[in-house]
Design brief:
The protein is an alpha+beta fold and 487 residues long. It contains 6 helices and 19 strands. Strands 4, 6, 7, 8, 9, 10 and 14 form a 7-stranded antiparallel β-sheet that branches. Mean pLDDT is 78; it is low at 62-81, 114-147 and 372-377.
Length: 487
């Protein structure tokens, strides 16, 4: 008990120190902003005075070279003054833009501290587009007079997604929302110390697992969001009924900009324990941080949760928990902090829930999480991937293995089926005698187990190559022995 109390005290001190550090960084940033504005105003004023003196000296040349630098210019022509201001702005825009970028970079480095600097140093070099260079999504709505495509507002979904014709509805902001524009955006409160403190929770109604497995019914979640360039992370959770304040989570989406060079992590949580996350490097995905807006799509199908960012298939979390057999509601949560109370930083503009045709293609070789996304190549002819099992500990591995060996015994030949059960998992691998037996098992046990063909792992590919080489060597040796007998 004393050790736990000491641990809580230390964690409290760490949180307080982190909060003071953030406040100091923010105060320093505000001070730097004010100083920068004062410098720019002084620079513009100086250039403006010099420009006016030059204009007056050309319009009223002095006799005998008299100095007209103090000439009163209150009666100047307004249009000439406007032109001078435009010239000054044009000559200083480039310098101001460069200075602003350098200043923001320095402030970000100071605010993040030494630990983040170590991560930044090993991050892939990503060239981010400036705000003015971001490609705008073009809608299918054509302007009546000129027939030109109208750009989609950055906080709206592109018309190319066809939501007007799709069966679904907007969950956020609500249709009856009449507050000011700023209130129509959800951002995690900076004062939150717990994931559910000030979080946004939405109900995903009308989910039917049997319909979702066949690609119909409510199966698609779409989120329009923005994550600033200085955000370290943000996340969302999808949970089923009876999640006990998100003690159980079916799907967790969490991009982390400064961890291991930038990672996207998708995971699940059962009985308050996070599972083994599926990771994908941010350098291989569409840019998420520092953009005006991004579109996240999560589709629920027979295999799992498919994740798309700006239309690109990024990862998949295969089902690790049996989905509810009866129609029910899922729950979507945008936490305010992580599990340790560290703040999350992003903005949510719109949330849509409904039915869309499945977007996943046939080639999933580059998608993280598709049967562990191993690179052995293709599907294994004899191995099956059984998922949706209850989570077991090390003590239950033997019992699970024996259960599956009995269920698949007749498909394994004289030696029986070979079963592999990872510890703390909700899935298993079963290898049968032949490809024909694998087809029979899929047809006859589909109602009892949720399964599909497993992908060939690196180990499988290496093992097959070794067996082929040994068979070839044995065949060559037998030929040599036979020829030597005849000689």
């Amino acid at each position: 008990a004393e050790l736990l109390a000491l641990y809580e005290t230390v964690k409290g001190y760490e949180k307080e120190a982190e909060k003071l550090k953030r406040n100091a960084a923010m105060a320093k940033q505000r001070e730097a902003d004010e100083k920068f504005k004062r410098e720019q105003q002084a620079l513009k004023k100086t250039k403006k005075s010099a420009k006016k003196r030059k204009a007056h000296s050309e319009e009223f040349p002095s006799a005998g070279g008299a100095d007209l630098g103090d000439f009163d210019s209150d009666d100047d022509d307004d249009s000439a003054l406007d032109e001078d201001q435009e010239d000054i702005a044009a000559t200083t825009d480039a310098d101001e833009h460069a200075m602003e970028e350098e200043r923001q970079k320095q402030q970000l480095e100071e605010a993040l501290g030494d630990k983040a600097q170590e991560n930044i140093a090993f991050m892939p070099s990503l060239k981010r587009k400036a705000v003015s260079e971001v490609d705008e999504e073009v809608s299918l709505i054509q302007s009546a007079p000129g027939g030109e495509a109208l750009p989609t507002p950055p906080r709206d979904f592109s018309e190319s997604y066809g939501l007007e014709e799709a069966a679904g509805s907007y969950l956020f902001p609500p249709p009856t929302f009449v507050e000011d524009e700023k209130s129509r955006i959800w951002t995690p409160p900076s004062t939150a110390n717990h994931p559910s403190e000030g979080d946004l929770e939405l109900e995903l109604t009308g989910f039917n697992s049997s319909l979702a497995r066949s690609g119909s019914g409510n199966n698609t979640l779409m989120i329009k969001f923005s994550a600033p360039s200085d955000s370290s992370r943000f996340s969302l959770n999808i949970a089923g009924p009876g999640h006990r304040d998100y003690f159980d989570v079916l799907f967790h989406f969490n991009p982390r900009q400064f961890q291991k060079g930038g990672q996207l992590i998708v995971n699940d949580k059962q009985e308050g324990i996070w599972g083994m996350g599926v990771t994908a490097p941010l350098s291989a995905l569409p840019i998420i941080f520092g953009q005006i807006s991004c579109t996240l799509i999560v589709q629920i199908n027979a295999d799992g949760f498919d994740v798309f960012v700006n239309g690109i298939h990024c990862s998949r979390l295969e089902h690790r928990t049996q989905l509810p057999p009866d129609p029910c509601s899922f729950f979507l949560q945008f936490p305010s902090t992580d599990d340790y109370g560290s703040p999350e930083n992003w903005s949510v503009f719109k949330v849509w829930w409904g039915h869309k045709p499945l977007m996943a293609g046939n080639d999933l070789s580059g998608v993280a999480g598709c049967n562990n996304n191993v690179t052995g190549g293709g599907l294994h002819p004899k191995k099956l991937f059984v998922s949706g099992l209850s989570k077991i500990t090390e003590e239950g591995v033997d019992l699970r293995r024996a259960e599956l060996e009995r269920a698949f015994r007749k498909y394994g030949g004289p030696q029986g089926a070979t079963v592999t059960v990872p510890v703390n998992s909700t899935y298993a691998f079963v290898e049968v005698e032949s490809e024909r037996q694998a087809d029979l098992a899929l047809a006859e046990l589909q109602s009892q187990y949720r399964m599909n063909r497993a992908r060939r792992s690196r180990y499988d590919a290496t093992q097959e190559e070794r067996e082929a080489a040994e068979a070839a060597a044995a065949k060559a040796g037998s030929k040599e022995e036979a020829s030597s007998e005849w000689d």
